Amino acid sequence: MVDRAQDAPWLAWLVEALHQAQWLLLRLLHACGLAGGAEGQPAWPWAWRLSGENLLLDAGQARLLAAGLGCAGAALLLLALACTWRRMRWPLAGGALLAVVLAPWPSASVVQVPAHPASFHTQPQPFSDTAIARGEAHYARHCLRCHGAQGNGQGRDAAAQPVWPPSFTSTLLWRRADGDLFHAIRHGVRGRDGRATMPGFAAWLSEAQTWDLLHYLRALAAGELLQATGSWAQPVPLPDMALRCHSAGKTRVSDWRGQRLLLTTAPLRDLLPDPRFITLWLPMEEAPSALPDAVDCVAAAPATATLALELVSASQSLHGVQLMADKAGWLRARNARGASAWRNDDLLCRTPDGTAQGVASGQEDALSRILRLMDAEPVRYVKGGRVHGTVF
Ligand code: HEC
Q1: What CATH number has the domain spanning 129-229?
Q2: Which of 138, 150, 189, 210 has most ligand 1 atoms within 8 Å of CB, for mutation?
Q3: Distances in Å between the alpha carbon of 384 and those of 16, 62, 167, 172?
Q4: pLDDT tops 70 at residue 2
Q5: Where are the domains of the chain?
Q6: Distance from residue 148's CA to the centre of ligand 1 (Å)
Q7: Stronger pLDDT, 19 or 187, i.e. the higher one
Q8: Contact 271, 279 (CB under 8 A)
Q9: What integer best gives the mean pLDDT of the chain?
């Protein structure tokens, strides 16, 4: 039986600690001038790194690593003691040596993976409607011919490639670190024999354009997954977008983090203020110039917002569509039947393993149940071998 990060908090913690330690080391080296920059961010100077990705699949090796680190910590402690407690110096130093010698370590092939300068690069831009729209244009120009309009690897040139392009609806985009995907797009991919299997696009795309593309790929994949399976095994955030709101200082979706958000395209006459969430209105017809009282905010750029949301929610048209985001910004439920017609199975992104549904209690209506489950089961997200609590 293999533990997974979701079931074993210590494993999630270990993997996160491994990543943070290397990230911190990189920042430190960069600050001291010992690591240069590459493509806009500090460059990882080694050809390998320690990765938690495999540990998430092999808890036995993870336990060895935890034990090894524990022994190393104990050895350091004993050495520090030996320095201060002179009378016990030799026994303590001996104990430290013993801890080092006996420390178990996982096999290098599991935790040591090839790295490149962009390995620890992180997505610098928010997942927003404008980034997705820009990414779509780059995709159409450079990627469509191989990867296809649905991102399923069925482009018109796909069959002529040395290997078949992957489908973006697999877990690829969610499990691989952003830095790895960024590197693959800019510098291409090579097969086991060292021959290029995908060309690199660094000469045609700026760094910012490459990051936009990654946002577009995730939005495309989210919609395709929803169409194919009706739910998301991987969580998807509500894209950030510009808003006009009654509350001063709130000009974007991201300004509402910490609140539940309902994005609705229902006609105004169907909308009632609801204190349980903030209502963001995306009008399907011309919006009135004065902000209606029944909603908290209205989308300030409806055309770009519509494009991004149609993609993410796999809707040909957003007429009558409602999307509910939880307090951390993840999209959790969708309903295309009108403002008040929620059903239990409108939950899109359930617990990470997609099974737990919670127990319906007594008189509870479907919307209340959805809201309760959203709060009770916050999203934990494994990406690039790390568990994320917040939105990418
Ligand atoms: C000439 C055809 C072709 C074009 C054009 C192309 N790709 Fe690919 N892509 C491939 C193939 C083939 C693979 C599989 C490579 C492999 O697994 O060895 C691939 C793999 C990928 C991967 C997975 C990389 C990995 O490390 O597993 C990503 C991400 C990707 N492509 C994104 C893009 C983006 C974004 C564009 C447009 C900028 C693009 N590709 C353009 C053929 C193409």
Answers
A1: 1.10.760.10
A2: 189
A3: 10, 16, 18, 10
A4: no
A5: 9-114, 129-229, 243-355+364-388
A6: 11
A7: 187
A8: yes
A9: 87
